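Hi R.,

As promised on Friday, here is the backbone we talked about, encoded as structure tokens. Could you run it through your design pipeline when you get a chance and send me back a sequence?
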């Protein structure tokens, strides 16, 4: 017979709850002294942070390395021309003086071109102890109009001098003729009036009687120093013209041709065209006022609406076109059998050697990879421009050749295509092919850094 209450089975003892294993200490490096100060263990950053700092360090390091190399290259070329800057000049001698024309790249600001001059060209010129004048333009045609105007003014001054010399010679011959003797000298002998008495009051400026030095008893033992430029002593190496940008170079050469081959006065067709344009603007302005339409202010208007200041006159159009060069006469007022100089015996602008620096400037979204590459390799540009500038400092000159028409031609590859197309429709000076006349270029010289 089975037992009514079977015995209970023994219960197994409960297993003790196991604690999670302790975490392994984080790998890294620690110093006991730093631990006492509460500085945690130094360890490697995570994978993402490693990627971030690697990329950032590479980009920043590339920029820093390029900047450092630029400064070293600049010092190298400055040291190259240091011998010129250490030359001792007497108190009456002035250094050679350059003329620098700077034009902005297409569709950009002037600072883009001026930065190249300031960073890569100017330090070498300063180390060479060369003086220079800078002319900048913000509108196309300013350089061309300025150069042509200077040459025309020189031709006009020479023409006036020739007329005065001719009149003086004619008067001298008349004074020696019998005609003057019988017409003027003989009647004047009989009708000559008595001179005024010496006692008549005659007011004289005090400065004509004596000077402050006479009153103070000062005597001048040393003559006044009259400085003379180095350009006066050697006309073959005097001065120099630098163009920053292909556009400035084109305008300079075109301005020289316009000044030497063009007429001295503005052609009548240009005057008629200016009158016609002014009449059309006035007519359009009157129609807009009649219709109640507010007229927009153009660049050629006389008054600036915002500032109330008078705006610049529009750029003068060329007095002569390249097609007219062959039929034009080469500056008959000037003596071109020798080097043309000014009143200070310094060769004039077109008799001085010329050089051009290309301005690399990329615009647009698609050119970003090339812009980044150029940004990280600016040191190559600094080295190239420093080498070019030493040729100017040491006067490495040769005659102008036809191939020099294409100097800095590579810059035009960077010009925006849309800007070039717009320039062709507007007949821009920069997009036209540079035309020269052999009679003009045969007198010119250029700097050559490959000599």
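Update: got your reply. Pasting your designed sequence below so it's all in one thread:
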């Amino acid at each position: 017979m089975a037992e009514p209450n079977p015995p209970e089975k023994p219960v197994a003892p409960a297993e003790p709850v196991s604690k999670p294993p302790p975490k392994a200490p984080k790998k890294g490096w620690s110093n006991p002294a730093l631990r006492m100060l509460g500085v945690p263990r130094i360890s490697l950053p995570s994978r993402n942070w490693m990627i971030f700092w690697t990329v950032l360090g590479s980009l920043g390091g590339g920029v820093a390395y390029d900047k450092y190399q630029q400064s070293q290259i600049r010092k190298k070329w400055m040291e190259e021309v240091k011998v010129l800057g250490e030359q001792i000049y007497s108190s009456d001698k002035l250094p050679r003086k350059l003329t620098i024309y700077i034009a902005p790249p297409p569709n950009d600001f002037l600072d883009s071109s001026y930065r190249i001059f300031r960073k890569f060209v100017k330090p070498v010129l300063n180390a060479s102890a060369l003086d220079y004048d800078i002319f900048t333009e913000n509108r196309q045609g300013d350089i061309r109009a300025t150069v042509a105007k200077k040459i025309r003014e020189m031709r006009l001054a020479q023409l006036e001098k020739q007329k005065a010399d001719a009149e003086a010679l004619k008067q001298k011959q008349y004074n020696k003729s019998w005609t003057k003797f019988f017409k003027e000298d003989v009647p004047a002998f009989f009708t000559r009036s008595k001179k005024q008495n010496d006692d008549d009051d005659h007011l004289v400026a005090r400065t004509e009687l004596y000077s402050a030095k006479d009153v103070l008893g000062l005597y001048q033992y040393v003559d006044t120093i009259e400085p003379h430029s180095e350009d006066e002593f050697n006309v073959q190496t005097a001065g120099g013209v630098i163009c920053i940008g292909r556009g400035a170079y084109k305008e300079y050469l075109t301005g020289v041709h316009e000044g030497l081959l063009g007429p001295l006065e503005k052609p009548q067709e240009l005057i008629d065209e200016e009158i016609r344009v002014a009449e059309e603007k006035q007519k359009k302005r009157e129609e807009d006022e009649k219709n109640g339409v507010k007229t927009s202010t153009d660049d050629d208007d006389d008054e600036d609406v915002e500032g109330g200041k008078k705006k610049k006159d529009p750029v003068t159009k060329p007095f002569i076109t390249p097609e007219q060069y062959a039929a034009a006469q080469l500056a008959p007022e000037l003596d071109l059998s020798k080097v043309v100089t000014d009143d200070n015996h310094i060769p004039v602008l077109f008799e001085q050697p010329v050089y051009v620096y290309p301005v690399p400037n990329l615009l647009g979204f698609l050119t970003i990879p090339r812009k980044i590459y150029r940004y990280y390799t600016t040191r190559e540009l600094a080295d190239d421009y420093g080498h070019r500038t030493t040729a100017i400092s040491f006067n490495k000159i040769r005659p102008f050749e036809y191939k020099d028409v294409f100097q800095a031609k590579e810059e035009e590859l960077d010009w925006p295509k849309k800007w070039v197309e717009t320039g062709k429709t507007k007949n821009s000076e920069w997009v036209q092919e540079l035309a020269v006349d052999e009679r003009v270029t045969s007198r010119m010289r250029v700097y050559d850094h490959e000599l």
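One thing I noticed while checking it: Strands lie at 93-94, 97-102, 131-136, 228-229, 241-244, 354-357, 397-399, 445-447.

Thanks again,
M.
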